[in-house]
Amino acid sequence: MIRPNSASNLSSKFTITMARKGGPKITLFLLFISIIAFGVFVPVFAPLPSLSSSSHSHRHRKVFTANARSFEIADDVFWKDGKPFRIIGGDLHYFRILPEYWEDRLLRAKALGLNTIQTYVPWNLHEPQPGNLVFEGIADLVSFLKICQKLDFLVMLRAGPYICAEWDLGGFPAWLLAIEPALKLRSSDPAYLKLVDKWWGILLPKVAHLLYNNGGPIIMVQIENEFGSYGDDQSYLHHLVKLAREHLGENIVLYTTDGGTRETLEKGTIRGDAVFSAVDFSTGEDPSPIFKLQKEFNAPGKSPPLSAEFYTGWLTHWGEDLQHTGAGFTASALEKIFSQNGSAVLYMAHGGTNFGFYNGANTIADESGYTYKPDITSYDYDAPIKESGDVDNAKFRALKRVIGRHSVASLPSTPPDNEKTGYGPIRLQKTAFLFDLLDMINPADVVESRNPVSMESVGQMFGFLVYVSEYASKDDGNILFIPKVHDRAQVFVLCSSDDKERRPTYIGTIERWSNEKLLLPNTKCASNISLIVLVENMGRVNYGQYMFDRKGILSSVYLDGRILDGWKMITIPLHTLNEVPRTNLITLVAHSRIVTSSALRKLEDSD
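^ thats the sequence. predicted structure below, dont judge the formating
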């Protein structure tokens, strides 16, 4: 069979020979014939499918897709534009890096030797409230992908709808938790799927033009994330595949990522060729039996060994020492994967920061059931590219040496660390007390209910929520008990009839992981005493069976063994601290019965 470049060369030689004999007219005529021949040969022969899975057939395919963009899997190998390709990737999340630093961090990933960037897409960042879509600033996904392409990176896009990622609620918008009847997340629950359909109907068309076959950098799109560690619902996975195909077409490689055990793969992926099943496993674990197991879940010839999350470090919870893993140990584990012709994605190449209140949380099994462990703001992850962007460290150098031995291209030089600047002492000035900030709240937004309601039910997703009620003080004090509070409640009392007591008095703290009873001391007051409970959302669980993690007071409140009724909820989302307080809303609320009609409808609908 004639190769396109051979046809071109043959035509050129023939034209030159005849030109000597027949002059310019013959030359132009034969040049015209050669152009027609070239135009015919390429469209006719290039699209022909492989006749077998032999190496000869793929040499054939390499020739005839050389001028077309394609990314596919065959013979247990990734093929990019008809040539074998090893994914040397790294997770680097646009939403954990300020946009001003996207290119800087990507250039450092390039210097490490990476050819592919993997990133999640957090639904809650892009739709913080129902119908309120955000794709600007740090949420400008398309701009990030275009920078990846400019720097010659390929992209593996982890579209969710669940992402885990040590991110609040695994990337789900918290407003999903306010819907009644309660949704069954990560399942084939029709009400849940309807919302997923709507979300992906916005997200996937937005990135479709950036698929590799369409001229963009995206070579693979992940559905769900480690589903086998959570559920067992094949109908749900099939629905996501069908939905992705509707928006992205048949050429894009869809993939799943699950732990490298038979149980997680049985539950978390789809056998056959509907998706490519990738695996992850502990750093240092022998990859050979796991890659062998991976092949069982992919169609024959469709299982290039891929560790989709090669852990370069680990996450840190509040109260723990920062996690560290040895540079030599990590590099040696990566070498084991590459030496078996495997591909790997470093999780993380660069961790970044959980900005705002977006950090997630985990639950650790113990004698009481589980312990709640919120993640810290830093997501440095002990990655080779540090949270600050620094690369002058042993782990970066060790991993780069390993990558350099297995990369087909020479690696760029390592850039210097960014220059640091000392700003000198910073003097903080107190401008307001926390409870004074409540004066920024429109009184019409205060919600009243017989029993406390969750943060999500009053339309707040992050920050703090204030609960206010009243009680009559006893001579020997009162015993306060809140069986279920998520996550940390600071308790205050206020005698509003006492002109001298203008601000609440702190009594103590009740925590999710140790919600003990609290003594409210006797307070002489001409009126009832205001009980004020300031509840902090420390981050929603992002992994495991306790993911349905509403925030606030989630039970009745007991005072001396009796239920305390009559509550008012005041939101403190802490979006801005720049407004000047006016009057004390705590005192106002303690003597009012304010509730918005919209909040009443929410509460009535939930009954």
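DSSP finds 13 helices and 25 strands in the chain.
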